[in-house]
Structure formats: C-alpha cells, structure tokens
Amino acid sequence: MNTETQIPTDTQVTWHIACAVSDIPEDGGGCAFIDGKQIAIFNFARRGEWYATDNECPHRQQMAVSRGMIGSHEGEPKVACPFHKKTFSLKTGQCFNDDAYQIKTFPVMVRENLVYIGL
Amino acid sequence: MKHISDIRIVVIGNGMVGFKFCEKLLAKRQASQQISITVFGEEPRVAYDRVHLSEYFAGKTADDLTLASEDWYADNGIKIYLSDPVVDIDREHKLVRSHHGIVVQYDYLIMATGSGAFVPTIPGVEKDGVFVYRTIEDLELIQSYARKAKKGAVIGGGLLGLEAAKALLDLGLEEAHVVEFATRLMPRQIDEAGSRMLQSQLESLGLHIHLSKNTQEIKGGDCIEGMQFADQSFLEVDMLVISAGIRPRDELAKIAGLETHPRGGIIVDNQLQTSDPSIFAIGECALAHHMIYGLIAPGYEMADVVAAKLTGGEKEFLPFDMSTKLKLIDTDVASFGDPFIEEPACTTVRYENKAKGIYKRINVSPDGKTLLGGILVGDAEQYNMLLQTCKNKTILPPDSEDLILGSRGGEEAGAGVMSFPDDALICSCEAVTKGMLCHEVSEKGNHTIDTIKKSCKAGTGCGGCIPMVKDIITGTLKQNGVYVRNVVCEHFDYSRQELLDLVKMNGLKTYGNVLDTFGKGDGCETCKPLVASLLASLWNESILQKDRAPIQDSNDRYLANIQKGGTYSVVPRIPGGEVTPEKLIVIGQVAQRYGLYTKITGGQRIDLFGAHLGDLPEIWEALINAGFESGHAYGKSLRTVKSCVGSTWCRFGVQDSVSFAIEVENRYKGLRSPHKLKSAVSGCIRECAEAQSKDFGIIATEKGWNLYVCGNGGSKPQHAQLLATDVDKETCLRLIDRFLMFYIKTADPLARTATWLNKMEGGMSYLKAVVVDDVLGIAAELESDLQQLIDVYQCEWKEVVDNPELRKRFSHFVNTPAKDPSIQFEEMREQKRAKEWA
Ligand code: SRM
Ligand SMILES: Cc1cc2nc3c(=O)[nH]c(=O)nc-3n(C[C@H](O)[C@H](O)[C@H](O)COP(=O)(O)OP(=O)(O)OC[C@H]3O[C@@H](n4cnc5c(N)ncnc54)[C@H](O)[C@@H]3O)c2cc1C
Ligand code: SF4
Ligand code: FES
C-alpha cells in the first residue's frame, strides 16, 4: 500500500487498473467492476492507507460494502455495511459482529494517480 | 485464640476458596502480626475462576481466568508449591509432607481441597473418550477429543451437567445428549413444572434429553462407542462427559484421622474447625451444617470466617443462602430462598407461559406479608429484586402476584435498588452491601463497574449482581446530583451534548477538525453520523461538501433510502399533503420513465421505489424542474407535517389547518436533529391529522391553536402532551422554535422527542418552564439559533443536480457507467417489487 513500490512480479496476483485516485472520495469508498467482479475500494486518507474488499456483503448478499462507512475499532481499520451495520476488518475481512461472516480482501497499489487491485 | 503473632499457616489446595483465604488473611492481618503462609496446590497453575470455566470454550485463555498471577503470591510473601499435592499430615508434630518431599511446619492448617467429579462405578468408564468437567486440563482434553467426535453425551442433568452439555454444543458436535437418572432436570434447584419448562427450552435449542435413564455399561473397544441403559435401550456416542455430582476431596483428612462424613466431607463446626482444633476446612471439601455447599459464595464466606478468626476477629459461619441464578444455554434459571416450600406453610403464586418458555413461582408467607422463596425459568430479570425482597423480609404489596407479573421495567428496578436498606447484601460472593457500594461511589469516586470490581471486588464472583451494582452506581450518582455521562464511542470521550457545545464554541465545520481536536483514532459508524448531525444542526451547510459526504449515514450520503436489493427510494416533499394535479402528473411520468414502484405513504406523500443509484440525479432533476424539493425521507430531520382538510372544506373545521401545516412544514424543512421529526395540524378537536401522535402537533380551537409535544407513533406509541393552549400562530411557531432547538441541543443521539422527555428530570413541567416560561433565560438564543438554520436552508437535491462534481458520486461503479448487474426485481400487481432476500 506504499505508493513507491514497484509492481511486484513474483506474487500470484494479477494487477488490474481500477480507477483514478480522485474517483474514490477521501475517507470513503467506491466500487470498481473488474474481471466480472465487484470490488469495493477504500481510500483511508486519514491513515494514508488503501484497502480493497468484496463489494458483496455476506449477510444478505447486498452489493453495498463500498457504500459503507469506514473507521477503526481499537486501531483496526473497518467498514460498516450500510444495510444492517455489520462491520468487517479491512485488513482481514473478518466480521466483528459475527464470526460466521467474512469478506475477501485484495491488495491495492497506487502509482501515478492510478489505483491498481491485485486479483 | 490466645496469642496471635508469629504464626505459620499452611494452606492445602490452591483453588478458588484457598486463594480467597490468602487474600482475606492478608487484608485482615494486624500490623503487629507476623504471618507466614505456605500454599500447596495439586494443579499445575495458580488458582483460576472455576465458576466461569466454560468461558474457556468461548475463547478465554487460562491466563484470563487466573485470579491472581504468580507474582502476586511472591509479592505478598506467600510461598507456593504447584503440581505438588500434600500427601501426609503429621498432626502430632504439626507437619505436612508433599508429594515431592517438602516438609513444612504449621501452627494452623487450612484444608481447601475442594471436590472432584463424582464418577459412578459403571463398567467402561475407563475408556478413551470419557471425561469429567472440573479443571482446565479436563477442558483441554475434551476440546482436543471433540475435534474428531460427532455425537456426545453428558451423564447428569444438574447444573454442571447442563453446562457441560452446552460446551459440547459449542464445540460443534452434531448431537449433544443429556442423560439423567432422575425423572427431571435440576431437581435440587427447581420444581417439577420449572424442570419441564427448562427441558422444552433446551430441547428447542437442539439438546436431546433422556430422563429416568440408568446407564449400565459404557460400550466400545479402547474408545467409547455407546451407552447401554438398564431399560435395554442403547445410545450411540463417541464421547461422554460425566457430571453426576461432586465428591468432596476428604481422602487426606481421612488418612490424618480427622472426622469425616460417611457420604463425604470433612466435618466442621460453625467456626470451620475440624475435629483437630488446629485444622480448619473450607470450601467444597467441608461439611458444615450437615451439608456440602457446592457454590462459590458460601466458600468465600468460609474463607472470611477463618481469616477473621486467625487475625483476632470473631465470626461464625451461619447456614448459607443457596439462591442461585444461572444462564444455561441461553435460558435463565434461578431459585432463591426456600423454593420448594408447599402450602399450607405458604401461599404459592405461579405464572406459566409455554409459548415464551417462561415459568415463575413465588412462595409467600401465609399472612401475605413476606416472600419466602421462588423459582424463575426463562426470564430471571427480577431475580436480584426478589432475592433482596426475600432476604430483607421486605413487606410485600397487597397483590403479591405483581412481583412476577407487574410491568417491572429496568427503570423501576433501578429506583427499587435505591430503596433497599444500607445493609442489604448485594454481592453475596464478596459480602458487599448496598451501603458499602454507595460509599465506594460517593466517597472513593469509583463510578464504573470496572473500578468497583477492583476496589471492593463486588461482581467478581459469580457476576450475578452486576446489573444491580450498575443500578446502584447510577442511582447514587444521581442522588449526589452528579451528571451521568454517556459518551459517544471509543473515539470521543464526550456525550453528544458536550460535543455539540465544544464544536459550536470552536466553530468547527468538518469531521476531520472535530476528530483531530476532540477525538482519537479514525472514527466509526457511530461517531461519524453523530458528528454529521451536529454539524448540520449547528451550521446547516450542505451535508455533502468538504469532508462531510463519507461521514453521513448511507441514506444521507445518497440523499435517498437504500432498499432491499440495493436500489433507492425517492420521496419528494409534498407540504401538508397538498399537491396540484400538474405535479401529480409529473410524479407519474417520472415513475413511468424510470420504472419505479409507486405508493402513497403513511405520511401523506408519495414514495417512488426501485431507483438505480445512477438514475437518482436525473430523477431529481425532473422533479425539481417541476417545483418539487427533497422530502428528507432519508434524514434525521423533519419528515412530514400532515394535515386534515380543515375549515376550507370540512363542515366542522374551525381553522385553516392545511395552510398552517404547509407553513409549518416549509419553516422546518431540512432541519437536522438527533432523530427524525414529525408533525401534524388538525382543523378541529376530531383530530383527523393525528397530531397527538407527533413530535409536535397542533390542533385548532375556536380561539387559536393548542400545541402538543413529544408524541410518538412507531414501536412504542405515546401520546403527545399539551404545552400551550389557545395561542395564535406566531406564538405557536415561536414555542415550536424554542422546543425544537432545546431538543436538538440536549437530546441523546437517536432519541425521539418522546424518549427525550421520558428521561428528562422534572418531565413535562420542566419542559414547559423552559420553553414557555423561559426559566433558564435561553429562549431568545434558542429562537435566534433556529432562525439562523432556517435562513441558510437550501434544497440539497437541487445542489447535487446543479453540481457536476457531486453528481459524479451517484454511480454504482467508479470505472463504468453500467448499473449494478446484480439488482433484480419481481412483478407484482402490475408494478415491480424488490427480489426477496436470498
Ligand atoms: C414509506 C413509509 C411507509 C409507507 O409506505 O407508508 C415509511 C417507510 C420507512 N420507515 Fe416509517 N415510513 C412511513 C411512515 C411512518 C409513520 C407514520 C407517519 O409518519 O405518520 C411512522 C409512525 C410515526 C412516528 O414515526 O412516530 C413510522 C415509523 C417508523 C419508525 C419508528 C420510529 C419510532 O420512533 O419508533 C422507523 C425506524 C426509525 O426511524 O428508526 C421507520 C423507518 C422507516 C424506513 C426509513 C426504514 C428504512 O430505513 O428503510 C422506511 C423507509 C422507506 C423509504 O425508503 O422511503 N419508520 N413510519 C412512510 C413514509 C412517510 C413519509 O411520507 O415520509
Ligand atoms: C464447570 C463449573 C461451573 C460452576 N459454576 C458455578 C456457578 O455458576 N456458581 C457457583 O457458585 N459455583 C459454581 N461452581 C462451583 C465452584 O467452582 C466451586 O464451588 C468452587 O470452585 C469451590 O472452591 P474450592 O476452593 O473449595 O475448590 P476447588 O476450586 O476445586 O479447589 C480445590 C483445589 O485443591 C486442590 N487439591 C485437592 N487436594 C489437594 C492436596 N492434597 N494437595 C494440594 N492441593 C489439593 C485441587 O486440585 C484444587 O485445585 C462451578 C464449578 C464448575 C466445575
Ligand atoms: S413499518 Fe417497517 S416494513 Fe413498514 S415501512 Fe416502516 S420500517 Fe419498513
Ligand atoms: S446486508 Fe450487509 S449487514 Fe445486512
């Protein structure tokens, strides 16, 4: 999540250009359509961090995680689904309110004002 | 006790009671007294909280359960030997010898050897997969064995057995069975009817219960494969926990020649002295008043009695109350006083609700004056209350059934605690009275349950008294005139009211500023919308500008309510419910063009459902061009001001309610508040607009208007109360201004006006004094603050429609204009509806 890193080549992921940095509001999220998948992207400007997760909330299969509010829980960055306020760690995707729920997280890289997501 | 200095004390057993004894002894020791303490423990770790042992399966570690660290023993000069049971007592020379050969001399010996699980002699108990449930080691073994097991059973349907059965369910076993020899569950604590109720509750939670079953043999090879019962039936299981009762650990006492009971237990007198005056026995190994007390509270009391005696005090152990409250697999079970006493020695009142799984029984003295005991299954909220009433022999109300039937909410209970006498025992585990707790709060400044736990240990035993301790903290603070703070969340250590004042005084206008100045961390879904609402209530600037968009609740952020499936609803404002045919046609056209489901709402306007996020700006553009404005159906702000048709058409109307409703709605539209605001204006006393169910409602009179406030529909309906009578329009609006601003400034987050009033000290007469009589002298300020908000009102949808940057945010994807392909609708009565949740 460091703007300086080179595109890593040794990992399993393929990097996709998702959008421009300005497409995602500071301290908010947006949803990109990549490879037929909906990916929620968050610009955690306050912490200088970027995160990406599934856009679908496992609770009621709603495509809305990107519209959730972000914040922290005892220092751990999280997002709250707007539907019923289940909250998920942006780092691990684990749901804080219910162990049964989990979303996927993806690596993000920002270079020259473009946001890349590794799938 | 002749002379008490320089004494050597040896404690055998480092369980809960052994530990408590050390703690009490240190606390009571006189300055002149030299005491040396040596402890022998058979288990490999220092004493831990056995009562909450099952929480080990819920993620607590052995460390979390520890009562005091090893350092604590060292720091207090206690010599402790773990994994080293005492094997011999030489009473003549006053020596003990441990398994590892350590020999220590004592002046007084304390036996706190507790008890072990009672394992009946059933052939096959030695097989792999058969366990007991007593120590952390037992739980570790159960946990690892359960990984490969599917069906588990517990022998014993008592308190511990049911707890073990819950553990089996928690460990993920497919089937959990309880096998009980008696004809019902928990026969020692509750009566027949209570047992049946408990049984059906537990069965509905997935537990299989077998009663009157005598296990004859445990079948299998090396590992258990099933249980054979005396009635020839067979149950296939691959693990078994035996929890058929406890057996006092009196084996060492027996070897030493102390007097023990044939059915187990070291016999002690009411000083806890054994047949050897230098040796005491406390906790679950001791037989006092002809019984083994298998609970922690009497054990701690025994520790207290002996500690007092050895430090020069005088105290005796009296027959102890066996009242208990437990939560068994999500079902409350409690019994107190004498639960089983029968008529004619008492009058019994029973309440049973099979649908809800609730059974309650109280036994009242024949003269109806005092409570003798009772049983609660399924709902034990009143336990603490009843227990205190029983113990303190409080005189009962004439209708004693009120005790279990009356609508005794939390608030009443709170008031009730404060009416107890100072010596009412609140925490029986640690013997803390109400008076002591009040002292902690008032004199020592301990205002939270955590600091109270640390300072006087109340609530650290079984934990059953915690709700009452909390009530006492709040009650005492209130009595002292202390304002009880209600902080926002982990990021802001302020109440909403405090934060509002701080933000106002410092002129802060963005969330970032507020968080940097008064908060910590990165915010969350609680404080973000709360601050958003404060900023809107203070400055009424666009909620989507600066850094404010992402802190809005999702509905505010998109200026629309998110619906099932991810589409949004569109609610244009229709003030007073009055709409021209032309405007109605536009609504119809917009709905047609964007395929929206159309419905008249309960608030006298029209809701269009099923709009794609990306279509919202265009939909609103069309509506705004036709003269509509945002209806704020998504905001914590003014919703509708309903009207009845009034004197313009109605033959009974005494005033023009429609005109006034429109005026009121236009005046307060866009006003953001702690929760939503609703209003209505009726043209006469018949009240067709239902004004008395609104946050503020107006009813026409012959002479003017009556103003009602703090009504609520919704889940807890409440009628509004009269604030002013026969006032003219201007006065009416001025009073509403003051009322609304006072609410905005002082209410808790998400409290409707009714809730706010219900919590207000002084209630309606105080509210009236502030709003009508201006006793606080703030009326002018309230009015001008409100006027300021009215002056800067703008339709927020118009702002978005006119601003390309803001419009851009209304798109499902950031990298394609496509709509969300996952959205699906179904047909219904010639319109559409959202697809059902999967
Ligand atoms: C559309 C409507 C139902 C209808 O089809 O008639 C409705 C729909 C919703 N109501 Fe309502 N309420 C509607 C009239 C009412 C009324 C009747 C009234 O206003 O006269 C009440 C009872 C009166 C009251 O509030 O005191 C009402 C009491 C509630 C409550 C409970 C409030 C309470 O204090 O207990 C909620 C939940 C909340 O706000 O927390 C709620 C919440 C909701 C939400 C916002 C739930 C949600 O988050 O999705 C629904 C949103 C639908 C949408 O997107 O527009 N709605 N709701 C009505 C819209 C009225 C309007 O024109 O603005
Ligand atoms: C699962 C479970 C749930 C419970 N729930 C509740 C509840 O909700 N409410 C309630 O009031 N009570 C409850 N209890 C009962 C409560 O835990 C006991 O009353 C309490 O632990 C008794 O304390 P004790 O010190 O007498 O015995 P223990 O805590 O058993 O301690 C005795 C210690 O002495 C050691 N010892 C024995 N012999 C020797 C020797 N010769 N030398 C050295 N050490 C020796 C033992 O190994 C043990 O460590 C529960 C018990 C269990 C097992
Ligand atoms: S009553 Fe419940 S279901 Fe009906 S609109 Fe209101 S919130 Fe929705
Ligand atoms: S759909 Fe996400 S919390 Fe319910």
From TrEMBL, chain A:
Keywords: 2Fe-2S, Heme, Iron, Iron-sulfur, Metal-binding, Nitrate assimilation, Oxidoreductase. Its EC number is 1.7.1.15. It comes from the Bacteria. It is an enzyme of class 1 (oxidoreductase). Residues 16-117 form the Rieske domain. InterPro entries: NasD-like, Rieske-like_NirD, Rieske_2Fe-2S, Rieske_2Fe-2S_sf. Signal peptide: none annotated. CDD domains: Rieske_NirD. Pfam families: Rieske_2. GO terms for molecular function: nitrite reductase (NADH) activity. PANTHER family: NITRITE REDUCTASE (NADH) LARGE SUBUNIT (PTHR43809:SF1). This is Nitrite reductase (NADH) small subunit. It comes from Dyadobacter linearis. The gene is nirD.
From TrEMBL, chain B:
Pfam families: Fer2_BFD (PF04324), NIR_SIR (PF01077), NIR_SIR_ferr (PF03460), Pyr_redox_2 (PF07992), Rubredoxin_C (PF18267). Residues 563-624 form the Nitrite/Sulfite reductase ferredoxin-like domain. SUPFAM superfamilies: FAD/NAD(P)-binding domain, Nitrite and sulphite reductase 4Fe-4S domain-like, Nitrite/Sulfite reductase N-terminal domain-like. Residues 425-473 form the BFD-like [2Fe-2S]-binding domain. Its cofactor is siroheme; [4Fe-4S] cluster; [2Fe-2S] cluster; FAD. GO terms for molecular function: nitrite reductase [NAD(P)H] activity. Keywords: 2Fe-2S, 4Fe-4S, FAD, Flavoprotein, Heme, Iron, Iron-sulfur, Metal-binding, Nitrate assimilation, Oxidoreductase. Coiled coil: none annotated. Its EC number is 1.7.1.4. Residues 323-393 form the NADH-rubredoxin oxidoreductase C-terminal domain. Residues 8-290 form the FAD/NAD(P)-binding domain. PROSITE patterns: NIR_SIR. InterPro entries: BFD-like_2Fe2S-bd_dom (IPR007419), BFD-like_2Fe2S-bd_dom_sf (IPR041854), FAD/NAD-bd_sf (IPR036188), FAD/NAD-binding_dom (IPR023753), FAD/NAD-linked_Rdtase_dimer_sf (IPR016156), NasD-like (IPR052034), NiRdtase/SiRdtase_haem-b_fer (IPR005117), Nit/Sulf_reduc_fer-like_dom_sf (IPR036136). Residues 635-760 form the Nitrite/sulphite reductase 4Fe-4S domain. Pathway: Nitrogen metabolism; nitrate reduction (assimilation). NCBIfam families: nitri_red_nirB, PRK14989.1. PANTHER family: NITRITE REDUCTASE (NADH) LARGE SUBUNIT. This is Nitrite reductase [NAD(P)H]. It comes from Dyadobacter linearis.
